[in-house]
TrEMBL record:
PROSITE patterns: NUDIX
Keywords: Hydrolase
GO biological process terms, semicolon-separated: nucleoside phosphate metabolic process; ribose phosphate metabolic process
Name of this chain's protein: Nudix hydrolase domain-containing protein
Lineage: Eukaryota, Fungi, Dikarya, Ascomycota, Pezizomycotina
InterPro entries: NUDIX_hydrolase-like_dom_sf, NUDIX_hydrolase_dom
The organism of origin for this protein: Cyphellophora europaea (strain CBS 101466) (Phialophora europaea)
Pfam family, one: NUDIX
UniProt GO molecular function: ADP-glucose pyrophosphohydrolase activity; ADP-ribose pyrophosphohydrolase activity
Boundaries of every Nudix hydrolase domain copy: 104-275
Cofactor(s) this protein requires: Mg(2+)
C-alpha cells in the first residue's frame, strides 16, 4: 500500500509532503543517496534566495518546495535503481509552479582515454578509446561513446572511473593518473560560481547532461598514456564489460573524435574540456579545491 509522510521541517520552509508508490518504503527513499544529494543541494539553492542580490529575493518571488510525488521506481533487488518523481516548487506570485518532473539516478563518470604510440617520434599521433554497446533508451544496439559508468553508494569519482576503465577495456589505471577535467575547468569559472546573485559552488563539480529532466551529473576524466603500438592495436574490437553489457572497444583518431562522438554528450563535453584546458596550458594544474575534496 502506498504511503505518505512529511519531510523533517527546515526553518523558513513550508512542510513538504511526500507520496510514495506501493513498492517503496519511506526508509528506502530517504536513505537513497541520489535523493539525499538532490534534496540537500536543492535546499541549498533555495536558501540562496535570502541574498538581496538573488533574482528571486523578493518575498513573493521566493520559491519553496511544497510536495514530492513518486511516480515510479525501478528496483534492483532490494535497492533503488532509478526513480521518477514530480515535485511542486512555487512562489506566491506565480500561479504555475516550476517544471518539476525529475528522473533521479545519481552521479556517473566518463573517461577520455588518449593513447600515443611510443614509435611516433613526433608525438602527434593520438588514439581515443571508444565503446560500442547497446543503449536501449537511445533506441540503439551500437551506440558509440567514451567509457562511462555509474557511481555506487560508497564510491568517489576517481575510484569509479578507474573501476569503469578496467571493466570496459581491461586496462588497470592507477587513480593517481586520472585527471578530473570538470573539476579543473570549474576552478577558474566565473559565471554564477562566486557572485552573490546565484553561487553554484554547492553543485557537483561535474557536467549535467540533461538538467531539464534528470539529476544525473557526470565527472569527466582524462587518462593519457604513451604505450607500444602493438598494445594499442590489441584493443581494437576487444569484447569487454559484464555479460549483460556486450561492450566492444573501438579506436578513433583524436582528430575525428568530435565527429565520431557527435551523438554522445559525454564525448563532446570531454573533448571540449580537453581542448580548452590544453589551449590554456592547464592540464598539469592541481585539480584539488581548497578543501582537497574529491567532489563525490
Amino acid at each position: 500500500m502506498a504511503s505518505t509522510f512529511t519531510l523533517p521541517k527546515i526553518a523558513g520552509e513550508p512542510p513538504v509532503e511526500v507520496h510514495l508508490v506501493d513498492n517503496l518504503t519511506e526508509d528506502q527513499f530517504v536513505a537513497w543517496i541520489p535523493f539525499k544529494n538532490w534534496l540537500e543541494t536543492f535546499r541549498q539553492s533555495l536558501a540562496l534566495q535570502s541574498d538581496v542580490n538573488h533574482p528571486f529575493h523578493k518575498e513573493d518571488e521566493r520559491y519553496t518546495l511544497r510536495s514530492i510525488e513518486v511516480k515510479a521506481v525501478d528496483m534492483w533487488g532490494n535497492r533503488i535503481g532509478f526513480l521518477m518523481m514530480k515535485t511542486v516548487v512555487k512562489n506566491e506570485k506565480d500561479k504555475q509552479p516550476l517544471a518539476g518532473t525529475v528522473f533521479l539516478r545519481g552521479g556517473s563518470v566518463a573517461i577520455l582515454m588518449i593513447l600515443r604510440p611510443e614509435e611516433d617520434e613526433d608525438n602527434d599521433e593520438r588514439w581515443v578509446v571508444m565503446t560500442q554497446q547497446p543503449r536501449v533508451p537511445a533506441a540503439s544496439l551500437t551506440f558509440y561513446e567514451i567509457p562511462a559508468g555509474m557511481i555506487d553508494d560508497s564510491g568517489t569519482f576517481s575510484g569509479a572511473a578507474a573501476k569503469e576503465l578496467y571493466e570496459e577495456t581491461s586496462l588497470e589505471v592507477p587513480v593517481s593518473e586520472l585527471k578530473n577535467m570538470t573539476k579543473l575547468a570549474l576552478k577558474n569559472a566565473k559565471l554564477a560560481l562566486k557572485d552573490a546573485q546565484g553561487s553554484e559552488e554547492h553543485l557537483q563539480k561535474a557536467m549535467y547532461p540533461s538538467p531539464g529532466g534528470c539529476d544525473e551529473y557526470i565527472a569527466l576524466f582524462l587518462w593519457e598514456r604513451t604505450m607500444p603500438r602493438i598494445e594499442i592495436n590489441e584493443l581494437r574490437g576487444k569484447l569487454s564489460g559484464v555479460d549483460s553489457e556486450k561492450i566492444k572497444v573501438k579506436l578513433v583518431r583524436y582528430e575525428e573524435l568530435w565527429k565520431e562522438g557527435a551523438r554522445d554528450a559525454k564525448t563532446l563535453a570531454a573533448w571540449a574540456l580537453y581542448e580548452g584546458l590544453t589551449r590554456e596550458g592547464r592540464l598539469d594544474e592541481d585539480e584539488d579545491d581548497e578543501n582537497g575534496e574529491d567532489g563525490a
